Amino acid sequence: MNLLYLHDSPSTSPFVSFPFTIGHEAVGQIDEVGSNVDRLSKGQRVVINPVLSCESRDMEPCPACMRGDQSLCINKNKGSIQPGLLIGACHNTGGSWGQYLVAHKSQIKSLPDEVDDLNGVLVEPFSCALHAVLRNPPAPNDNVLIIGGGLIGLSVLVALRALDIKCSITMLVKYSFQGEAAKSYGADHIVYLDKSYVGETARVLNAEVLRPVIGDEVIQGGADIVYECVGKDKSIKDSLRFTNSGGKVVLLGLASVMEKIDWTAVWLNELTIKGCFAYSYNEFEGENIDTMDIAIELMKRGKVDLSPLITHRFSLADYKLAFQTISRKQKKDVLKVIFDHDKTVGGSA
After folding, report:
1. Residue 349 above 50 pLDDT?
2. For residue 62, what are the domain limits?
3. How much is the pTM?
């Protein structure tokens, strides 16, 4: 939706190829198998890792891919296919907003019977949150602030709880239905983005609100680590000022061009700002494992169930209604909208 509303930065345009079919979060069945593929079969239920790194481009691995950081691949505009960060941004592959897409055999993840389709379609976004947490884990007993109560913010919460990280988690959310979801997934504190949210967030984090001569309130103290999951000017500003001295801000919200961001807190409090894109390999139970495989394993074990977050399902023919629903989140209590290619025309469920 960021792309359709032109909220994305033009700086990513060298890494797409037009025209392309949108969609990279997908669960489905294999319809056709290439001649050089031997471990996959027609009808198999799978999800895809959509990152188009060296292997999917028939290239020798770059330094990032060699160390397991496929999301940082430097060849996303080279190789045997046209430019594209992901399936869904590449002319050659198609995307999940169509009935069919093409993926390299290295991108296919078999889905066990224990993981239903509703969780399967969320393996990809959950892996984004899981990657951020595994690369930037809180220390025991840290105060954690998650800004944003959408799918990614809630997935960060779920990841922290599924990994049994002992920390206090505060969620800063916009809508009551987001707060209810956060409560059900184990948030310790929920703060709503209303007129009193600054003081309430500071109170929960045992921080002090200071008044400058002009401008927004200044926070002394705050969270040890903040996961920013919105990517807007306001959420970026809050992530910086609600982080404790020496703390870390992890950016998951696809922030792009920002204006009038006050960066004083970064140098004054010696903050660490860490970007996060997609997923790669991460350490899990003593092994270095593909993040999506970790996500599937946590779902298989019953430690993660994101299916309640899918609030609306539409046929692709109902795309206009789907977009209208997304644009009116508060009125429709929208968390996640998906296209169901087996669904007939006629609304949401």
Report:
1. no
2. 1-124
3. 0.96
